[in-house]
Write a structure and sequence with these properties.
CATH architecture: Up-down Bundle
Shape: elongated
Number of domains: 1
Number of helices: 5
Distance between the termini: 130 Å
Radius of gyration: 28 Å
Structural class: mainly alpha
Order of helices and strands: HHHHH
Oligomer: single chain
Number of strands: 0
Strand content: under 5%
Length: 230
Amino acid sequence: RRVEAVGPSVSSELVRQSVVALILGAVAVLAYLWFRFEWQFAVGAIATTAHDIFVTLAIYSLLGIDFDLTSIAAILTIMGYSLNDTVVVYDRIREMLRRYKRMPMPALLDQAVNATFSRTIIVSMTTFLAVLALYWFGGEVLRGFSLAMAVGVVVGTYSTIYVAAPMLIHLGLRPSVVEPKADDGVEEAVIVAPDEAGVVPTAPALTPAPAPAAARRTGKGRQRPRPAKS
């Protein structure tokens, strides 16, 4: 009969493999985002994801929760959720950088975050409710996984809004860095900075001026000749 013993060496091996998996995943994501976006977006996404993982691990340490295989799976899942939310916001920021070259960066980032805010909140709330049900009804085995996921969803939501976007300013991102698409066909809009109330006014729509009375002619710019009087 075969007997296997589980000791500290097995747990240390699992920790080593999980760390290697996290590092390889971060490197792969960094390479993809660097190729897909600019380097500022890649560094910001990795820093935001690392922030979410470290906060989740800190909650584990403060509460004294056992770190097992399900916790490692939760950390990898949190990494995917955080990157997904961050990439959605960054894609909107890049789109606005191509359209609004003269808009100040704080106002542009604020509008990009507001445009994706409802999507971020809805996705996070639905995921959190599912994880909460898993925590209460999933049994003791899934408690670690569901707790890590709940913490990661909450942390990832606020980091996407308050960490990922403002970090681009500190990394030196400017509208001139993002190259416009050749097939955009969108004229540049001139938008000024927000006023004291926080409202960003836009340029008023241009209305065509009425044609002068002397220019109201028929035909190709010629007046219709009047018939001669008999």
